[in-house]
């Protein structure tokens, strides 16, 4: 017989692509959440990255879903906004990257299958820059992480989830590969002189003058 999918009381998920500056906000936020708190049984914390359809299990088997993400809602850079239940439609309709297109499909599929979570909340940060390839979070997005964690704590408290602060100096296993952790990733990041941020430098050459031009 096929294995029965695991049921989750609550899933806390960060999504985004850390290769494009503020587009990685959700991933950095969920990692900060993971390092700040222990969660009780029945609560799953995951780095969703750009995993797309691999996230279907978590969406379809969660009673309640909390998502951290970068979202263009035309606010100030670093502004944090809460979308909940029916109001998440603007988040799904306002794509800032390909990962949201995949999530839109996942939510629609879950709804058609009758497996949509009872409650979905998205805590979104207005990006400042999502075009810096290999870039870090901008200062505005970085400063928004404590704000989004406070909002997450309030939301989970309303859902009856009690978070336990981690002890000072406690070692925490990373949610993803250790080389992708923010400090490691940014310390090993090449400078703009060492690596072109926008294209392959072999193709960044001046255009030849048009025929007949002076």
TrEMBL record:
<dbReference type="InterPro" id="IPR004419">
    <property type="entry name" value="Pept_A31_hyd_express"/>
</dbReference>
<dbReference type="InterPro" id="IPR000671">
    <property type="entry name" value="Peptidase_A31"/>
</dbReference>
<keyword id="KW-0533">Nickel</keyword>
<keyword id="KW-0064">Aspartyl protease</keyword>
<feature type="compositionally biased region" description="Basic and acidic residues">
    <location>
        <begin position="190"/>
        <end position="200"/>
    </location>
</feature>
<feature type="region of interest" description="Disordered">
    <location>
        <begin position="190"/>
        <end position="214"/>
    </location>
</feature>
<keyword id="KW-0378">Hydrolase</keyword>
<keyword id="KW-0479">Metal-binding</keyword>
<comment type="similarity">
    <text>Belongs to the peptidase A31 family.</text>
</comment>
<keyword id="KW-0645">Protease</keyword>
<dbReference type="Pfam" id="PF01750">
    <property type="entry name" value="HycI"/>
</dbReference>
<dbReference type="InterPro" id="IPR023430">
    <property type="entry name" value="Pept_HybD-like_dom_sf"/>
</dbReference>
<protein>
    <submittedName>
        <fullName>HyaD/HybD family hydrogenase maturation endopeptidase</fullName>
    </submittedName>
</protein>
